[in-house]
Amino acid sequence: SSSNLLLAINGASMTNKRKRRPAGTPDPDAEVLSLSPRTLVESDRYVCEICNQGFQRDQNLQMHRRRHKVPWKLLKREKKDEEVRKRVYVCPEPSCLHHDPCHALGDLVGIKKHFRRKHSVHKQWVCERCSKGYAVQSDYKAHLKTCGLRGHSCDCGRVFSRVESFIEHQDTCTIR
User: Fold this and answer.
1) Cα 74 from Cα 84, distance rounded (Å)
2) Hey, which of 75, 100, 130, 135 would disulfide with 120, CB 3.0 to 4.6 Å?
3) So where are the chain's domains?
């Protein structure tokens, strides 16, 4: 019957769908990597495997690789003679949630930003208006767009662009 045919078609398409793993379940096929804290804060972290030239951004490395005229996937297969595995990155800080492979981050840029935001004491970019420091440049640039706008000023000298942050600060501020 037509309903059985529809069921068979729907059933066939359901078997081809890739099921998502529940949150907190590691990918059993992924290679879990743990990089050193020093590696995560280095600026030239993206290094060409052919000529060892370093780059600050992954996109720049990708453009550079094209000059060698060797497909990247081919390079990886020649080295290991096996299928390229997905890589996930764990945080080197043992007390961190992302230290557990169940909560690993899926790309190098993500783990670098996470480590700098949460564990780095070096704040390379400092706002001239409010003196707040940032370890990730994109966070600093986002901050600059709102810093000083619709300012809520505390008597201690701090200025908040969000009223929620201002109220929260006032609860703990000793200078009022």
Assistant:
1) 9
2) 135
3) 2-121, 123-176
Instruction: Tell me if 111 sits within 8 A of 120, measured CB to CB.
Output: no
Helix and strand element counts for the chain (H, E): 7, 8
What radius of gyration, in Å, describes the C-alpha atoms of the chain?
24
User: What six digits make up the tokens of 15?
Assistant: 């078997």
**CA dist 161 → 68, 75, 167 (Å):** 48, 49, 11
- Distance between CA atoms of residues 157 and 148, nearest Å: 12
Quick: pLDDT tens for 33-49. 888 888 788 766 676 76
Tokens of 176: 């009022």
Q: Which residues contact 140 (CB under 8 A, 6 or more apart)?
A: 125, 127, 134
- Using CA atoms, how far apart are residues 123 and 135, in angstroms rounded to an integer? 4
Q: For 2-15, what is each residue's pLDDT tens digit?
A: 444 444 444 444 45
